[in-house]
Amino acid sequence: MKMRIDVVTIFPEFFGVLDVSLLGKAREAALVETHVHDLRDYAAFKADGSPDVHRTVDDAPFGGGAGMVMKADVWGKAIDDVLRPSGVLVIPSPAGVPFTQALAADLAEASQLVFACGRYEGIDARVAQHYADAGYRVIEASLGDYVLNGGEVAAFAMIEAITRLIPGFMGNAQSIVEESHSDGLLEYPSYTRPAQWRGLEVPDVLLSGHHARIAQWRRDQQLERTRERRPDLLPPDATVAD
Ligand code: ADE
């Protein structure tokens, strides 16, 4: 089944690079189709039906505070137009659940993903609530614990992580199985020729041809790296020799 991805944004030109990324290959293979929509196309009329020559997409927050909030009525028109009955609404937000490899793999099975890219201080919270209440799967997801200017860069990263997991996308399925995060650990270090470079040698075991020892060494490296860099990922029973 072909996946359909819709992106709604006030910066549609940002997504022109979808064509030249890895995702271009998935599109050529007819595994995914992407459609980018300009949010301002849905802002030609105000909530009361009168024309809005400025195509306003944001307004001041109720309750006061810095920044602007994107308007529910404009987002509602856009999402009503693109979201299909079986579609999943993804809203990139620094306040969302962590976007993980597991979530990417889960979303790779969807028939349609709609990315709602908010700028400024976010989208009126009733938008997520409305579509969840209407029975849609709605996911507010964060790329990491830092703040971007808007959802575009996050949506792009998510789209790349998801589309490469669509069954049939990558030629070498094993490279997906072995990569960082697919087994909950960071990937082991890799080397290629030459065996010596600037005085640095490739670990002997990798030149030994001894498959069981190589597999054991890689596993140890995964655990050691994960312990050093991402101890939060380690299962409580993981042991690694010092
Ligand atoms: N929008 C702004 N910051 C973000 C983040 N860290 N993740 C997802 N969307 C965002």
Automatic annotation (TrEMBL):
It is found in: Cytoplasm. Its EC number is 2.1.1.228. Residues 3-234 form the tRNA methyltransferase TRMD/TRM10-type domain. S-adenosyl-L-methionine binds at residues 118, 143-148. It catalyses: guanosine(37) in tRNA + S-adenosyl-L-methionine = N(1)-methylguanosine(37) in tRNA + S-adenosyl-L-homocysteine + H(+). Keywords: Cytoplasm, Methyltransferase, S-adenosyl-L-methionine, Transferase, tRNA processing. Its main location: cytoplasm. The keyword tRNA processing applies. Pfam families: tRNA_m1G_MT. InterPro entries: Alpha/beta_knot_MTases, tRNA_m1G_MeTrfase_C_sf, tRNA_m1G_MeTrfase_TrmD, tRNA_m1G_MTases_N, tRNA_MeTrfase_TRMD/TRM10. Residues 222-242 are annotated as: Disordered. Residues 222-232 have a biased composition (Basic and acidic residues). PANTHER family: TRNA (GUANINE-N(1)-)-METHYLTRANSFERASE (PTHR46417). Specifically methylates guanosine-37 in various tRNAs. Belongs to the RNA methyltransferase TrmD family. Homodimer. This is tRNA (guanine-N(1)-)-methyltransferase. It comes from Demequina sediminis. The lineage of its organism: Bacteria, Bacillati, Actinomycetota, Actinomycetes, Micrococcales. The gene is trmD.
